[in-house]
Amino acid sequence: MANLIITGGAGFIGANFVRHWRKVSPNDGIVVLDALTYAGNPANIADVPDVSLVEGDICDTALVSQLIADHDVDTIVHFAAESHVDRSITGPDAFVTTNVIGTHSLLKAAKAAWLDKGTGRPHRFHHVSTDEVYGTLELDDPAFSESTPYAPNSPYSASKAGSDHLVRAYHHTYGLETTTSNCSNNYGPYQFPEKLIPLFTLNALSGKNLPIYGDGMNIRDWLHVEDHCIGIELIMRKGRIGETYNVGGGQELPNIEVIKEICRGVDEAFARNPALASVFPDAPAAHGRPSAELMTYVQDRKGHDRRYAIDETKIRSELGYEPSRDFPQGFADTLNWFLDNQDWWRPLVARAALAG
């Protein structure tokens, strides 16, 4: 039996991991530490049994230390991060604070509890990072591997790169038992509606424009969040201490193809279920028109990386990882989840509209 702190466990990927870990390890203790900023939502884990949610800041080292002591924690899974590139361009300070200083706060608390007191107990600090730390690829470049040099191009990716280096340093300098995973673009249930797939899905349902950066040919590797959780579990159970593993979905697609798939999926959903027209009367599909008519091209984002691609040979060969979904199936599942869980996302959209 393990006792875990899962930071950012009320956010998108963290909440899915809380759900996954509770399912595969029903007897483990779970404490979720989340600042409950705009993207943290207690509803994401409200129905998960035996989870303690603590509202708090990972920069509060004393709080983290107290939680480790009070709950006899031997494992930290670190998701908490500012993660939206657009927000990092307009407000980078929060990204440095949370992603760099916050990670260092956690590492200090973990070192104090697990190493400085001389217990020698087995422990694990797993750090969840991003493929964006590697920079950008040309079309004919090989995919990112764990040995690809870091070359971050946005304040977000630079702050994540800094946090990765700190985790590595705490292993090599102090002997903290760490692992790191760098993942590709996630999608799936509970994703906050500022990211491409939920944003464009909900825009298509409400008849709002689908704004495409530049020429729409920026390429990403798409990873369903449940496959990501499986990858993290494999790393935590079987991964080598001090190592980094890239986790991808094996679905390298231009943004424009992702957006076309969203439009196709929404149109097909309305064709299968005509009752959706009364629920979403502003959707073009409610009137027999293609959702693609909402597509519009806008000025490209500053510093927009052209291509990301993940070489997941290491995690496949060492740990037996294999994603279970291609993108069409993964998006179909995701669309069905958003159609079935309007009570979850409608308040978030309304709140964003009021804030705007």
TrEMBL record:
* Enzyme class at the top of the EC tree: lyase
Organism classification: Bacteria, Pseudomonadati, Pseudomonadota, Alphaproteobacteria, Sphingomonadales
Q: Which InterPro entries match?
A: dTDP_Gluc_deHydtase, NAD(P)-bd_dom, NAD(P)-bd_dom_sf, Sc_DH/Rdtase_CS
Query: Signal peptide span per the entry?
Result: none
Residue ranges occupied by any NAD(P)-binding domain in the UniProt entry: 5-333
Q: What is the protein's species of origin? A: Sphingobium soli
What are the protein's UniProt keywords? Lyase, NAD
Q: What is its EC number?
A: 4.2.1.46
Q: Which reaction does it catalyse?
A: dTDP-alpha-D-glucose = dTDP-4-dehydro-6-deoxy-alpha-D-glucose + H2O
Query: SUPFAM superfamilies, from UniProt?
Result: NAD(P)-binding Rossmann-fold domains
Q: Which GO terms describe its molecular function?
A: dTDP-glucose 4,6-dehydratase activity
Q: Which cofactor does it need?
A: NAD(+)
Q: What is this protein called?
A: dTDP-glucose 4,6-dehydratase
What family does the database annotate? Belongs to the NAD(P)-dependent epimerase/dehydratase family. dTDP-glucose dehydratase subfamily.
Instruction: Kindly give the PANTHER family that the UniProt entry links to this protein.
Output: DTDP-D-GLUCOSE 4,6-DEHYDRATASE-RELATED
